[in-house]
Design goal:
15 helices; 450 residues; 74% helix
Length: 450
């Protein structure tokens, strides 16, 4: 299962909010690149590794249900109703879309001895575990969907605050590397989770709770072994009200154009990615001629091979983007690779070609996710004061596609299908490829980051 207060809401603290600068002309960019930069505080190696492990744990607990566990439970509760999976995942994403900026603002303004972010991680983990129990024991599709909504809120809050903590802590020269490591971890995590799920597909409780246990352990390690400043003395000039809270869901795109372009590129990519991945279990079952309950070990085996591909994309792209001080070209390359892989899968007529396409998409996802995360941190407005708010807004670029795409996907699946025929997964995957490619092209218009 990643904000800044308005100008009149600056906290009374020693930190001065970063101010936006207009895009520099191309001729000036070279001078800026060659000029000495002021040294930024570096996050410690222990913080980096606990951050990576924390995100790994959240994705094991949160994405395993999306990858396989929900499909298995749905096939038990409503056999043959594949489209229900889209409705369930879309509903959960819609709830997150409505709540993420609110929680981001509250996180920015939280006053506790243990800081701003960790209280939300603790509460989110508790709610996330409850959600797994609800899904495991759900007697109906409706209760299963309710459990997924709870999972989106709980584990989603943990992930959002982990990523906002990156904006709080990481220097510019660390963002690509750490995003690459985290991107690799979050891509490997579902594979790890599916391996666990595949071993316990006959036991609904273990199917959900064992991946959840991994999440609890690694999130607890981050909370216990990293430190945040005490925020009990923070003061704000403006009191929060329903009106001011609602206003924080919006911002002026013209004021932060590059942030807006990153938002749009991420939206397009994740719209295509959601179209591609929501029905993965059913797609593989259809192409391989097996039951959905038999797909878990197949996907897990493929996922193990995909670890190397994801490593190449996430870590290679992240580290190289820091080294050559370029983000946009790697984001575009990730989108191109994913689009190529999705088309190969869509047109696959045998298992080797299907697996080849999947491995290509793994490289693309790893590279795009890692470098795009670093790009977000590069252009995030007002990091010192409102990182939570703007990370919530950038979260719209993922949650809106996750809410909308699953409801639209059944329309594509039904095109050209005769009575009693199968679903049109070929068309769905080609459309997904087109959206991801557009997402990569959009970032070429960014000017403040190369």
């Amino acid at each position: 299962m990643t904000h800044e207060p308005p100008r009149n809401e600056t906290p009374r603290a020693s930190a001065v909010p970063a101010q936006p600068f207009p895009a520099a002309p191309a001729a000036v960019e070279e001078v800026i690149d060659s000029a000495p930069t002021r040294a930024e505080p570096q996050a410690s190696p222990s913080y980096i590794w606990f951050q990576v492990l924390g995100q790994f744990g959240v994705f094991v607990a949160f994405i395993t249900p999306l990858a396989i566990s929900l499909a298995i439970r749905l096939s038990e509760l409503a056999p043959g109703r594949d489209e229900y999976l889209g409705y369930i995942t879309g509903s959960g994403a819609l709830v997150v879309m409505l709540t993420a900026p609110l929680f981001g603002v509250l996180s920015d303004r939280t006053r506790t001895r243990i800081g701003r972010r960790r209280p939300f991680m603790i509460a989110g983990t508790v709610l996330g575990v409850v959600s797994l129990v609800v899904m495991a024991l759900a007697p109906s599709v409706l209760v299963l969907g309710f459990g997924w909504v709870l999972a989106q809120i709980g584990w989603g809050q943990v992930l959002q605050n982990l990523q906002t903590s990156m904006a709080d802590k990481l220097s510019e020269t660390q963002r690509g590397k750490v995003a690459g490591l985290a991107g690799f971890a979050t891509q490997v995590a579902p594979v790890f989770g599916v391996v666990i799920a595949g071993s316990f597909s006959g036991n609904a409780l273990l199917l959900f709770l064992l991946p959840g246990l991994v999440g609890v352990i690694f999130v607890a390690m981050f909370v216990l072994f990293t430190r945040e400043p005490d925020t009990r003395g923070a003061r704000f000039d403006e009191r929060l009200s329903p009106k001011t809270l609602f206003s924080k869901y919006l911002y002026n795109p013209r004021r932060f154009p590059d942030f807006s372009l990153v938002w749009l590129g991420r939206f397009l990519f994740y719209f295509g990615l959601t179209l591609n991945t929501t029905f993965t279990a059913f797609f593989f079952a259809s192409r391989l001629g097996v039951e959905v309950t038999e797909v878990a070990p197949i996907i897990a085996t493929l996922g193990l091979f995909g670890i190397g591909a994801t490593t190449l994309g996430a870590i290679g792209g992240g580290f190289l983007s820091d080294k050559v001080r370029r983000r946009r070209v790697f984001v575009l390359l990730g989108a191109v690779l994913f689009a190529v892989g999705a088309i190969v899968m869509a047109l696959a007529s045998d298992v080797p070609v299907l697996y080849t396409g999947s491995l290509i998409t793994s490289v693309g996802i790893g590279m795009f996710a890692a470098v795009d995360q670093a790009l977000i941190l590069d252009v995030l407005p007002e990091k010192a004061t409102n990182a939570g708010r703007y990370m919530g807004i950038i979260g719209f670029a993922v949650s809106i596609p996750q809410a909308v795409a699953p409801f639209i996907a059944p329309v594509f699946l039904a095109i050209g299908v005769t009575a009693g025929g199968g679903k049109n997964y070929t068309l769905l995957y080609i459309i997904a490829a087109a959206f991801t490619l557009l997402g990569g092209l959009v970032v070429l218009r960014i000017r403040s980051v190369r």
